[in-house]
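Hypothesis: this fold can be encoded by more than one sequence.
Test: take the C-alpha cells below, design a sequence, compare later.
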C-alpha cells in the first residue's frame, strides 16, 4: 500500500451492487505497521498472516472496530 493513493471513503455501490472492501496483510515477523496502514483504509474484512500477538490484535481491533469486534 505504501506509496499508493487509495480512496479512504468507502464506496457506496458498484453498478448498483454493494461493495465489500477486503485487505490481506502479511505482518512479517509480527510487525503491526502494515496492518495499521491497511486498516486505515476502512476495509470490511481483514485477513492477517504472521499476525501480531492476540493481545496486540485485540487492541488494534478495538481501536478501529470498537468493543464488539470479533476475536
Amino acid at each position: 500500500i505504501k506509496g499508493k493513493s487509495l480512496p479512504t471513503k468507502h464506496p457506496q455501490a458498484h453498478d448498483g451492487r454493494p461493495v465489500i472492501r477486503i485487505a490481506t496483510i502479511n505482518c512479517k515477523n509480527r510487525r503491526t505497521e502494515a496492518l495499521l496502514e491497511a486498516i486505515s483504509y476502512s476495509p470490511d474484512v481483514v485477513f492477517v498472516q504472521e499476525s501480531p500477538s492476540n493481545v496486540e490484535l485485540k487492541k488494534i481491533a478495538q481501536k478501529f472496530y470498537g468493543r464488539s469486534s470479533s476475536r
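Helices lie at 33-39, 54-65. Residues 1 and 37 are 8 Å apart (CA to CA).
Hypothesis status: open.
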